[in-house]
Amino acid sequence: MSTLPEFVSPTAIADQVDRSQVLSAEIRPLWEGARLSGPAYTVQCAPGDNLMLHAAIHRAPAGSVIVVDAGDASHAVAGGNVCAVAQRRGIAGFVIDGAIRDVEEIRDLEFPVFARAVVPKPGRKAVPLPLQQPVNCGGVLVRSGDLLSADQEGIVSVPAASVDAVLKAVAGKAELEREQSLDEWETDHQQKINSILREAGVDW
Questions:
Q1: Inside any domain, residue 107
Q2: Would the annotation count 79 as a binding residue?
Q3: Which range of residues forms the domain containing residue 75?
Q4: According to the annotation, is 80 in a ligand binding site?
Q5: Is 102 annotated as a binding residue?
Q6: Which of 8, 66, 195, 204 sits at a 20 to 30 Å CA gap from 132?
């Protein structure tokens, strides 16, 4: 995988990948304006337990997006202090299929967190599990090293083996769009839609 840009829009990436790589829309940013992009560092937690996320913040490389399958959303897997330490260590943010707490603290930190729920009760710390194993997050199988991109539009995962090709396609489309005026886009769009309608037998 080549060096990643600082941020790649999930909408730009989604245009280049299958719908199956888009995480559930139920996983939402914790605060307005949150966004992240970077290689995944995957974490599996047992239901009601947050031990492995708390371990991961001390082990994940700077720039990583920590991606968590929390097992359920009954207990928060992290709060303000965990996010503050992760931010200080250079972690790009969290994507959590589960619950978080301390929303105001995390918002004040401006640390990017995307989660399925907010629950005030923290989980226990009792179940050790391997880190960096494939996890199911938002209905998508994510492996460590896959590219994660998230903002208010949603979250997209790109398998590590496809990242270079996808980023090249994203850059190519962006270049074409910069060179095309709105009038040119409108003409091309109208021709495309009319062609599809004619092929479908619609003539009006």
A1: yes
A2: yes
A3: 10-160
A4: yes
A5: yes
A6: 8
